[in-house]
Inverse folding.
């Protein structure tokens, strides 16, 4: 993929902090954000710029960062530094959604911006997609059939490739300088997550992880696999998932040439994989069995540095590791650090 192509950032939920972190990113890191643009709604992004300006962040005291309407991605590089370019997705909003509330209009706009950006990436019009946070309740209120970014992007990729969704398996990886984690299941209930721990799903996760990180790192990754149960089942005393499903998948992955170890006790494997300046981790990535098992340790080690990367898509997609933060939306206090990390990650993946 050509690296001169622009990077599309989606607006996220207009009732949350997505617009504010986007404005702060363009205002504080203009060199990094050069060639990037936002897919979203002009009026809501200008409101976000005004909220940020009230805190003193902008081209001058009390002055909002300019938000410029562009016709398409090809114009992103022509926009001068110190300006946020936006492609209007859908009809311009006649009314602004209230800050900090679940709103169907916000959910619809967020979904439309993700779908638009994904289609641009699948057609080769943009180099990568970086998604600002959306709200899953707002998506549901808008009648969107998918619970989040990952599922939306998977469906778009499958349609583009002419395949079923099941034929385009994807996985979520959350990465920070200290730890990378890939999840076997994502946005399902804990009961469903346990049911998803099958030989096929674990092996598929290992294959996707191995392929994606081999490309990103330039060498086969050292993969650790967390068990599902306490102490990785303790030989079957606390559950048989490790014996019946996880260990056989690890054995099969090794037979395919992957460097995989496990299943290991979940309460220690993340510490063994953690990278520190004076102590490199034993593994490049941990495969976790479900959402919270893997995301809690990554977020604990550094929420502002965490980046969500979707593995298995025929496009590059990264996302900041935070939510819509309705409690501070509109205050201008949102921290853009994770979004900036997501942009840096996207740039590194398309090099």
């Amino acid at each position: 993929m050509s690296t001169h192509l622009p990077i599309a950032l989606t607006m996220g939920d207009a009732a949350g902090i997505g617009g504010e972190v986007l404005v702060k990113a363009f205002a504080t890191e203009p060199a990094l954000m050069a060639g990037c643009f936002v897919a979203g709604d002009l009026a809501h992004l200008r409101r976000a710029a005004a909220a940020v300006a009230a805190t003193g962040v902008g081209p001058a005291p009390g002055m909002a960062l300019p938000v410029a309407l562009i016709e398409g991605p090809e114009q992103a590089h022509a926009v001068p530094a110190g300006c946020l370019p936006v492609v209007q997705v859908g009809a311009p909003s006649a009314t602004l959604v209230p800050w900090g509330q679940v709103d169907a209009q916000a959910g619809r706009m967020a979904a439309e911006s993700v779908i638009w950006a994904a289609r641009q990436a699948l057609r080769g019009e943009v180099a990568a997609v970086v998604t600002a946070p959306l709200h899953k309740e707002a998506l549901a209120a808008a009648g969107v059939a998918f619970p989040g970014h990952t599922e939306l992007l998977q469906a778009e990729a499958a349609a583009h490739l002419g395949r079923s969704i099941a034929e385009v398996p994807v996985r979520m990886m959350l990465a920070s300088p200290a730890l990378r984690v890939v999840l076997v299941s994502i946005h399902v209930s804990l009961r469903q997550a346990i049911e998803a721990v099958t030989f096929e799903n674990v092996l598929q996760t290992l294959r996707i992880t191995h392929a994606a990180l081999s490309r990103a790192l330039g060498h086969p990754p050292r993969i650790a696999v967390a068990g599902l149960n306490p102490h990785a089942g303790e030989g079957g005393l606390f559950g048989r998932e490790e014996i019946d499903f996880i260990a056989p998948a690890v054995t099969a992955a090794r037979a395919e040439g992957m460097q995989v170890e496990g299943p290991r006790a979940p309460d220690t494997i993340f510490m063994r994989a953690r990278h520190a300046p004076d102590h490199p981790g034993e593994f490049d990535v941990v495969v976790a069995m479900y959402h919270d098992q893997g995301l809690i340790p990554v977020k604990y080690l550094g929420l502002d540095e965490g980046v969500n990367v979707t593995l298995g898509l025929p496009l590059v997609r990264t996302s900041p590791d935070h939510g819509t933060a309705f409690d501070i939306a509109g205050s201008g206090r949102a921290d853009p650090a994770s979004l900036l990390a997501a942009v840096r990650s996207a740039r590194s993946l398309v090099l």
